[in-house]
Structure formats: structure tokens, C-alpha cells
Amino acid sequence: MYRILPLLTDEEIAECRRIAAQSPFVDGRITNPHNKAKQNEQLHQPEAYQNSSQLLMQAFGRSQEFRDFAFPASMTPPFLTRYRPGMKYGLHTDSAYLRMPGGQIRSDLSCTIFLSEPESYEGGHLHIRYGDSDLRFKLPAGEVIVYPSDTMHEVEPVTSGERLVAVTFIQSLVPDPFRRTLLYNLNEVAALEGLNMTDENFMRLQLIQNQLLRHWGEKP
Amino acid sequence: MYKVIPLLTGAEIAECQRIAASTPFADGRITNPHNKAKQNEQLHDQAGYDRSSQLLQAALIRNEELLNFAFPVKVAPPLITRYKPGMKYGLHTDVAYMQLPNGGLRSDLSCTIFLNEPSSYEGGSLHVRLNDADMRFKLKPGEAIVYPSDTLHEVEPVTSGERLVAITFLQSRVQDPFRRNLLYELNEVAALEGLKMKPENFTTLQLIQNQLLRYWGDVPRG
Questions:
Q1: Residues pairing with B164 in the sheet
Q2: Burial group, residue B183, by CB count within 10 angstroms (0-12, 13-18, 19+)
Q3: What would the pLDDT profile of A33-90 be if each residue is shown by its tens digit?
Q4: Do the beta carbons of residue B74 and residue B132 sit within 8 Å?
Q5: Residue A104 in 3-state DSSP?
Q6: pLDDT-derived band of residue B222, with 50, 70 and 90 as boundaries?
Q7: Assembly ipTM
Q8: Chain B contact probe: residue of A174, A195, A201, A206 with most B CBs at under 10 A
Q9: What is the pTM of this model?
Q10: Hey, of A1, A185, A193, which one would you mutate to test binding to chain B, going by the most B CBs within 10 A of its CB?
Q11: Which residue does chain B place closest to A211, by CA atoms?
Q12: In this complex, which of B185, B192, B204 lies closest to A208 when CB atoms are compared?
């Protein structure tokens, strides 16, 4: 399932843009040397990386909607990426396992945090192939799209302006998308309707929610 | 999970009792020759068996509570069984697969249908062991206890009077007890609370119910 969430305050957006404007970027191939599809630039300065990734991690950490949807066990520090005219990230899939400072992470969910206003650049949609169908996302600054990592997707060429985003990958306590989505939906219904139920029935529903999470959830 | 279900009408109870009173019984060992624990008698007459098993099977599959609880795909023809003073069915487990007239059945759930007044006999409780805990059932006529087939259980000795029951076994669409119980509970909550919900939320809940049943349910055969 695909979920768009509002994540950042205006101050946080401004801070990310300020960091991006003041810091050096390098060719994105530095972390994917064998990937010809990747034609973008990524932040390449330890302090700026630390400041921006911490700010973004904190924003994820306070988002109840994100936790409800993703059941995150761990996630990679988000890093800032930009696309200038002519840049793109051709059709690709994300790696199943990624190295990160504290060890490895399995990428169950991928996430793009949009940092530029959509009208400030042309092109640059996140395009996700869905069988013979297509999904395209170009979101307002501060919003994120969380989507399954096992899709083919691309960033379409930017033809003018600059597309600034941050990307991150999430390992979920519930890796199976069917199960994760079902649990999310069940928890949402329980949250929305629980207080209208009799105490007994709400308790029964809560037992079911926890049984399924225990049954399907991985060891943290 | 254990479920007590009211199953039979007064007329059906009387009919079962009439069949039992007018039909020959045989030693229960005829269908379990190697089981020394089994010391009871079972109905042994084709016409009486056909009539009683059809009546009881029809009662089981019209029962909404049973359908909701057991998700049955096959029900063995119930067999009338009686225990006279001194008889019992010692601690045993039910076999996993049994042969039926129309093919095999995996016994996921066992069921005892009580057919006479509990006050008319002493002893004869169905005793189910749950490791170091115990459950005992001695129900009113017409009531059935449905319980997982993978327990150790016994019929305690009858010391006076006569215990008349029918027993049957059910194959469930959802074999795993955890999953079956969870689905049952979810369906119950949805049935009890659904009409109070916003239509959109109820639709989501129904989607979940059907997703889980597709995900966990056995493939239908034939």
C-alpha cells in the first residue's frame, strides 16, 4: 500500500533547504557505482548529513501515522538528494539489504520526503510501476510517500528547476505487505470505532489486534 | 477454544431418545478394536443410524453458531453412544483422519451432543485435559460441546443411570486453532458492532475478514 503523510514543519523544510544550499553534493553514483540508471546528486558532507538526517529522523519519530502504517523496527538515516535539469533516476529496484552505520537493514518500505515546492521544478515525478498500471507522485514540500520497496520505480527527468528530496528505507516489524496492510487497516478501524463499541467487544478486538501482531511481528 | 451450543429442539431430543431405546447397541470396540480405553456401547442398526445421524447432521449444519465457530466443510455422521453404570472412555486422543462413507475427514474439532438429563446419571462428565488444568462438561440435553480434537480427553465412569450422547467430528475450513479462533472472534465483533460503524469503516473491516479467510482457509475440493 501507498501512503502519503505530512511530516515536516515549515521550519524543518527551511532548515533542510538551508543545509542543502550550503553543503557540497556529489554524484549519486558514489554509493551505487554500478548503477547506470542513477543520475542525481547527493549530500556529501558529514556534519550536514548528520544535522539533516537527525532532523528528519526526529520528524519520523514523532509521526504517529508513520508508526501506525510502517511498524518501523529500524530505518536508514535519510539523506538529501537533488536533481537538476537533465537528471533522473531511471527505472530500478531498491536493494533488499542495505548497510548503515549501526549494521544492516532490510528495506521493506522506501520513502521519499519532498523538500521543494512542486511548482518550482518541472518533471521529477516519482513514478512507480504497478503491473501494467502506473502511479506518479510529486508532493508538496514536507510530505512523504511511503511505498513498498519491492516495486520497479524511477524518478522521471527534471527538465527545469531543482528537485530536492530526502530518501530513506525502513525495516518493518511486519515485513509481509499483505499482513502489514491488514494490520494497519484493522488498527485504524479499531481506533476509529473502538469508543463506540461495548467494552467487551472492544476488548475482544484489541486482543485480536495484539494476537495478529504477535503472530506476524518479528523480534525487534 | 471450547464452545457450548444449544443444538436440538425438544422433538429432536425425544426422537433421538426413541431411536436409542428401540435400536440395538453393540460394544464400542467394534470400531476401535485396539483401544482398551473405550468401554461404551454404540448404536448398531443401519436404519436407526441413518435416521439419527441425518437428524443430527441437519441440526448441526443449520446452526448458525456452529457454522460461525467451526467453519465446517465436512461433518462426520453423528453416532449415538451410551454409557451404562461402570462404563467409561478412558483418556485418549481422537485420530487425525477418519474414513467416512463419502471420503476422508480430518478431525479438527470434536463434538459431543448430550441427549439426556444430567440429573439422570451420575459421573459421565467429558473431561478435557489442558496440561495441568482440567475442564469438565456435563451438559443439558440438546446441547453440544465443540472442542479441539487435539486434546487428551476422557469420559469419566458412569456410576448410575445411563449417559446417552452422540459424537461427531468436524473438518474445518481453517485448520489452525489460533487462526480459526481469531477469525471467529473478529467475525463476532464485526457482527455485533458493524451496524453501528461508519459504512466506510465497516467495509474495511469486512475486507479484513475476507482477506484473512482467503489467506487461511483451505482450498475447496470438488
A1: B82
A2: buried
A3: 878 889 999 999 999 999 999 999 999 999 999 999 999 999 999 999 999 999 999 9
A4: no
A5: strand
A6: low
A7: 0.79
A8: A201
A9: 0.85
A10: A193
A11: B182
A12: B185
